[in-house]
Design a protein that fits this description.
This protein is mainly α. Among the domains are: 92 residues, no CATH class; 80 residues, Arc Repressor Mutant, subunit A (Orthogonal Bundle), CATH 1.10.10. Helices cover 46% and strands 5% of the residues. The longest helix is centred in the last third of the chain and has 30 residues.
Length: 319
């Protein structure tokens, strides 16, 4: 764990810009909270404990013992409440065993040339095969020997991740790559992927120079048909990139001595109809309230300035 010493530069007097960005980030999360019954008081309890935990573990001064008074000063939480909340330890991110196993099997299935086609798509595999030939049982055994391959297959069939044909061939279903809404797998990756994306952004904001790659291409003023077409094309491009990255990492791991580092390469695609509400402080899309307002990516390009004269003109940017 790396302590993050606090300095005068960490606490600017004007936090308006940061607060505006945070409101925009939190808006879809608040919608999720309300739909799932997480009330404001319940969220406050979570945030209070998290504030204390982060201040306690991430902002300790080198060579000095962290104190209730310092945590209280950093967080603005009363010292008695700090004393009650401290000592719980840093949050532990535990990957469910079945989820970790499934992810590793899928990654191997998509990485090996003998289990994918020329475009990197997973081939159907016979459940069993002769020694040295690709099969589902051999694939599972190459990843784990703690669980029988048949038990893994039964779990996948129950979760509708794969189907077993009459010819005893196992075929992956789309659900193996797109978790069902609200299940354990989706919530795990929801937390992990959003955490890593936000953590990369925070590192870039706090650091003297961007440490992590974080770029986007975004256009507005599009027709529904074009937006849907671009969404599908970007899905295809993203799938190719993820498949290639997985294959590269899988082969590199074969000769890597191992260590304490982890790596995540992620991608997202988003599209929506922009219908700004009057007086809305921060819409999900961040649609500009006036057609001459610069995009959140920074100063508008020449093309954006030309398009700014009419709200129906298309505007594009890479950020």
């Amino acid at each position: 764990m790396h302590a993050v010493p606090i300095s005068a530069n960490d606490i600017p007097l004007d936090t308006t810009r940061l607060q505006g960005a945070v409101v925009r980030i939190l808006r879809p999360l608040v919608r999720l909270f309300l739909r799932r019954g997480i009330t404001f008081p319940a969220l406050c309890c979570v945030l209070r404990e998290l504030y204390v935990n982060v201040a306690d573990h991430d902002f300790a001064l080198s060579g000095k013992k962290q104190t209730d008074s310092r945590v209280s000063l950093l967080t603005g939480i009363h010292r008695k409440e700090v004393r009650r909340l401290r000592g719980a330890g840093a949050p532990v991110n535990v990957v469910p065993a079945s989820l970790s196993r499934t992810s590793r099997i899928l990654a191997r299935w998509l990485a090996m040339a003998e289990t994918t086609d020329a475009r990197g798509r997973p081939l159907p595999l016979p459940r069993v095969a002769e020694l040295g030939r690709p099969s589902f049982e051999a694939l599972v055994a190459s990843v784990t020997r703690d669980v029988r391959p048949r038990a893994v297959l039964d779990e996948w069939l129950d979760r509708q991740l794969a189907v077993l044909g009459a010819d005893d061939v196992v075929t992956l279903l789309e659900a193996a790559f797109v978790p069902r809404g609200g299940d354990e797998q989706q919530f795990y990756y929801f937390g992990r992927n959003l955490h890593d994306h936000v953590a990369a952004s925070v590192r870039n904001v706090l650091g003297p120079a961007p440490r992590f790659l974080e770029r986007a291409v975004h256009y507005d003023g599009l027709s529904a048909d074009l937006a849907q077409d671009l969404e599908q094309r970007s899905r295809d491009l993203a799938t190719e990139a993820l498949t290639s990255a997985n294959r590269t990492a899988h082969h590199a791991c074969a000769t890597d001595p191992g260590g304490a580092w982890r790596w995540n390469f992620g991608v997202y695609v988003y599209a929506e109809e922009m219908v700004p509400a009057a007086g809305d402080v921060a819409s999900d899309s961040g649609a500009p309230p006036r057609p001459d307002t610069a995009s959140a990516a920074g100063s508008p390009s020449d093309a954006e300035r030309r398009g700014a004269s009419s709200p129906t003109r298309r505007r594009g940017s890479a950020s």
